[in-house]
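Review form for a predicted model. The reviewer records the input and the model, then writes brief findings.
Reviewer: anonymous (R2)
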Amino acid sequence: MSGLIDTAKEKIWDIVTDLAQNEDIDTLKMGMVFYRDRGDVFVTKQIPISIDLDEVYADLLEIRADGGGDTPESVNQALFESVNNMKWSSDKNTYKTIFVVGDCPPHMDYSNDIKYTESCKQAVIKGITINTIKLGNSCSEAIVHFKKMSECTNGAYLKLDQDAQDYTIATPYDSEINSASKDIDNSRMYYGSSVVRRENYDKKEKSMKVYDDASTTANSSRAEYKNSKTGRKGAYGTKEIINDYNDGKLELDKIKDDQLPKELRGLSISEKETILMDLSNERKENYSKLQDLIKMKKEYIKSKESEQTNKSSFSKEVIKIIKEQTEKDKSH
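Model under review:
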C-alpha cells in the first residue's frame, strides 16, 4: 500500500482544493483510518475528523507502509471505526462519505469482529455514503466484498491500479507560492488562556513542519487550498490575534497582558495597535501575492494538462465521485 500512501501525501490537497471551488461548500472536514491486521505493528490507526486539514496532513506524513504481504486484512474493524468512532455531523444536509481503499478482502473468520455488513447498516442510519476502491489485480476475492460495501449505501465502486497512480504537474510558481504561504503561517500569533495558546502554537508548529516534510508540489496545492474561502476557515485555529483584529473581534484593552502573545506584552494600547496594523497589512500583501501566483499556476497547469490525457489519476476519480454524489444530493 506504499503507492497509495505516497499518492495520498501528494494529491490530497488537489482533491480538497478542487472541492473548495464549489461555492455551495462552506466547510470541509477530513479524517483517516489506516488498517493492517491483527499481529501487525498496529491493527488500525486513526486520524480524527477535523477542519484543521494541516493537522490531519501532518499526521498523514508520519504514516509508513510497513509489514503487509498477507491477506486478508482488518477491513471490518477499519470500517466499524470509521462509521462509529469518528465525530460525524448530525446535520442531514451535510454530505458525509467514506472511501474504503485497499487490495485485500476483509477477514470474515474473526469471531469477535463486527462484519462490514453491520457497519454498513449504521452508515445508512447516519447518512454516510460508502465508496470503495479496489487496487490491483491480486486478491480478486476482495471484489465482491468491496462491491457489497458500496452498494449498501448506493456508493460507488472503482477498480484502479495497485499503486493508485496519479500525475503531478510542477509549475515555475510553486516555490514562490510556498514562500508566501509560509510567511502567512509563520505570522500566526495566539492569545487567550495558557491552555488555548499552547494548543494553537502546537498546531502552528505542525503546520510549519509540513513545509519541510512534504513535497514542493504538495505544499503548493496546500497553499492554494488554505487561500480559498473554505480553507481559511480552518487555517488559523481559534484566538489568532491578527485574524481576530482584522475581523473586528478584538478589544485589546480587555485582554490581560499575560494572555497576549509575547510580542505584544508590556506595550501600550497604541503600540499594540500599530504592531497589529503592520502585521495585518503584511499578511494582506502576502495573500494578494499568493492569489496572483495561484492564478498563474492554474493557467500553467491548464496548458500542460492536455499532455496527461493517457495517464490515470486517482485524485480525479475521487473528485468525480464526490461531485456526482453531492450534485445528486442537491437535486433531492
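Findings: The mean pLDDT is 92.
Further findings: The radius of gyration is 22 Å.
Recommendation: see findings above.
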